[in-house]
Amino acid sequence: METNVINQDINVGNVAKAVKVAVAKGDGIGPEIMDATLKILQAAGAQIEPEFIELGEQVYLSGNTAGIEQEAWDTINRNKLILKAPITTPQGKGYKSLNVTLRKSLGLFANVRPVTALHPYIQTHFPQMDVVVVRENEEDLYAGIEHQQTQDVVQCLKLITRPGCERIIRYAFEYAQAYGRKKVTCMVKDNIMKLTDGLFHQVFDEISAEYPEIISDTQIIDIGAARLAARPQNYDVIVTSNLYGDIISDIVAEIAGSVGMAGSANLGTNVAMFEAIHGSAPDIAGQNIANPSGLLNAAIGMLAHIGQTTVADNIKNAWLSTLEQGYHTADIYKEGISQQKVSTSEFADAVIARLGERPKILPASNLAAGAGTIKIPTYQRKNEQKELVGVDIFIDWKGSDPQDLGDRLASIDSFNLKLKMITNRGVKVYPSGLKETYCTDHWRCRFVASDAKIQGGNPVYHPVDYEQVVALLSKLHHVGFDVIKTENLYEFNGRRGFSLGQGE
Ligand code: NAD
Fold this sequence. Notes:
Blueprint: E1 19-24, H1 30-44, E2 48-53, H2 57-61, H3 70-79, E3 81-84, H4 98-105, E4 110-116, E5 130-136, E6 146-148, E7 154-156, H5 162-178, E8 183-188, H6 196-208, E9 215-220, H7 221-230, E10 237-240, H8 242-256, E11 263-267, E12 272-276, H9 293-305, H10 309-324, E13 327-328, E14 340-341, H11 344-353, E15 386-396, H12 402-410, E16 417-424, E17 427-430, E18 442-449, E19 453-455, E20 458-460, H13 466-478, E21 482-492, E22 495-496
Parallel strand pairs: 1-2, 1-3, 3-12, 5-10, 8-9, 8-10, 13-14
Antiparallel strand pairs: 4-5, 4-11, 6-7, 11-12, 15-18, 15-21, 16-17, 16-18, 19-20, 21-22
Helix pairs in contact: 1-9, 1-11, 5-6, 7-8, 9-10, 10-11
Bound molecules: nicotinamide-adenine-dinucleotide.
Nicotinamide-adenine-dinucleotide binds next to loops.
C-alpha cells in the first residue's frame, strides 16, 4: 500500500534540511485537521518549516473573487510546495473555484489519489481494493470556457490537448512502474467524442506500447465506472481525463469506507500541492470530531515526495496501528470493531503515542521501497500539413423549419462555398431531416467547396481559401443572418479534423 507520489525529475532519497512548505489551514474543519496533522508531523520529526498562507472563504468574502491574496502567491512561488486543508467556495456571486485556479495557474497537471481498503478496521464491501486514480487536472471541461450563444443554448468547451494527454498518461505508466503496479486502465467516452476522447485513447495506445511489462486496458467510462463501483479489486492504476477522474475518485474513496480517509497529490513540473480529497465539511466544523486522516495521508505523501520517506513510513505505520487498535473518529466508528470513539485531537495524540509501532495485521508502510524518479519528457510537436476545407457557421435563427433555413442558405452564392448540411444539437436536419427532431434556435451550417464529393461512401473535401469564408460571413450578415460563431474545418495530413453530423 502506498500513498506517496513522486514528481518528475525528483530523486527520492533522505534529506536532512528543513523544507519550507506553504501551509493553508483552510475553512470549516480545515484548521482542526491541519493542527492535528502538523502536531503529528512535528512529533515524528518531519524536517519541514510551515509558512502559513491565507486563502479561501475569508479572502473571498473580503471582496477578492479569486480567494487568494498576492502574499500567498509569493509564498507558494518561493516554496514550490503546498499543504492545503479544504476550503469553502461561497455559492454564487461569480466566485472562481480556488482549487481549480491553483491547479491551473501552477501547472499541477496530475492529480493522484491512492485509495486502499483497511479491512477489517474500516468497514467496506471491498476488502481487497487498492486503486490509484491518476486524473488529468488542467484541461477538459474544467478549462471553464463557457458562453451563452442564443436565448436557448449555452456551451462549455471541452479542450483535450496532445501534450496534456501525453503528460498524464506517461505519468500513470511511470507511476505504475515506480511502485510495482501491474495494470493501467484508461477510461474514455470515445464512442461518442471521437476527436477529444479519441485523442486520449490514441495517446494511451501509443504510450502503453512503450511499457510492455504493464498490462494496459481501455474501458468506456460509463461501464468502467459501474464495474469500478461493483468490483474495485479488479483495478490497479486508472488514468482518465479531468471530469471523469473527479467523479470516479470520489466513488473510489467512498466505497473504501470514508471520504475522510484519502489524501491526494497535485503535481506539476515545479510545484506540488497536497490535500485531502474531502471538502471543508461545514456541518461538523468547530466540533473537534472530524477525521484528520485524509490530510495526514496527503502530508505523508508530501514527505515522501520531498524524500523524507523514513519519517513518512513512521507516521503511516503509527496511523495504521492507531486504526488497528480501534481508536476511531466518529465517521469510521463502528460498535463491535472500534475500541474508542475519539475526537480529532485525541486521534492525533493516539497516532503520536504509537510512533515507532508497526501495524500487526495491516501491511506496514514501506514508502522508501517505492523510491525512484518519474521522467516526463518535454513535449515535441510533430509538424503536420494543415488544410482549410470548409467552415461551420453557427446561426441564431428563431424559425422552426430546417428546410426553410436550408433553402435560404443554399441560395446564397459565395465564391465556390456551398451549404452541405445543417445540424441542430449535432443532428442533421437538412437536407432530408426527420420532422420528429426537436430543433432549438442554434443551427450549425456546414459550408464546403462546391466541388467536394463523396467517394467510396466518404466525403472528399477540397481546399478552401479563408478569404472565401470571410466573404461568406459578410454576405450572411448583409442578408440578415445572426452569425454567432464559426469553426473552421481543417484536415491534418489529409485526416479529417472535425466530426460528421449525426446522420450525415
Ligand atoms: P465535504 O467533503 O466537505 O463533506 C461531505 C460529507 O462528508 C459531510 O457529511 C462531511 O461531514 C463528511 N466529511 C468530510 N470530510 C470529513 C472528515 N475529514 N471527517 C469526517 N467527516 C467528513 O463535501 P461538501 O459538503 O460537498 O462540500 C463542503 C464545502 O467544501 C463546499 O464549499 C465545497 O466547495 C468545499 N470543497 C472543497 C474541497 C477542497 O478544498 N479541496 C474539495 C471538495 C469540496
